[in-house]
């Protein structure tokens, strides 16, 4: 059941990402990451008073939905940023995401002893705040089709023979 909820939540985040495709990229990431942090804080507060399977599944659904939303936006950004290397870019982003997630998850599991949902919420909170900080600190290139530096000469696009 948990796997299905997780999959449905990532699908929900990806679908929402597709619906909001015309919205500003960085703003979408900041809002999604901020909502993720807010959800963690609310769920930690909730689990101080009530711990059950539905609250655990609420963790999974809310956090994996925002995670799916953020991942789909980052994947789309990479593919549009490097269209001539789309396959390599997608492989690097997908593989990099998997490696970074595995390393961070292993560090958290080996550092924290998760005995209840509140501690799990703290672990999710650490990851959510880390994602938010990364999104804030990265300098995103947006609207590259606009001339960013008027002194830069652009070469013509390559023509297929």
UniProtKB/TrEMBL annotation:
Keyword check for Cell membrane: no
Protein origin, superkingdom: Bacteria
SUPFAM superfamilies cross-referenced by the UniProt entry: MFS general substrate transporter
Matching InterPro entries: MFS_trans_sf
Signal peptide: none
Transmembrane segments: 29-50, 56-77, 89-109, 121-138
Protein name: Multidrug effflux MFS transporter
Keywords from the named record: Membrane, Transmembrane, Transmembrane helix
Record flagged with keyword Transmembrane: yes
């Amino acid at each position: 059941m948990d796997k299905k909820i997780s999959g449905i939540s990532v699908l929900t985040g990806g679908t929402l990402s597709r619906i909001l495709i015309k919205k500003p990229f960085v703003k979408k990431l900041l809002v999604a990451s901020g909502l993720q942090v807010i959800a963690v804080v609310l769920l930690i507060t909730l689990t101080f008073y009530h711990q059950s399977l539905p609250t655990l599944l609420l963790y999974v659904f809310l956090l994996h939905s925002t995670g799916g939303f953020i991942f789909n936006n980052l994947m789309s950004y990479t593919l549009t940023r490097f269209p001539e290397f789309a396959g390599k870019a997608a492989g690097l982003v997908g593989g990099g995401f998997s490696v970074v997630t595995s390393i961070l998850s292993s560090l958290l599991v080996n550092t924290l002893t998760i005995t209840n949902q509140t501690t799990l919420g703290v672990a999710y909170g650490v990851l959510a705040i880390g994602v938010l900080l990364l999104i804030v600190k990265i300098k995103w290139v947006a609207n590259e089709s606009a001339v960013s530096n008027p002194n830069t000469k652009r070469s013509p696009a390559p023509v297929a023979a």
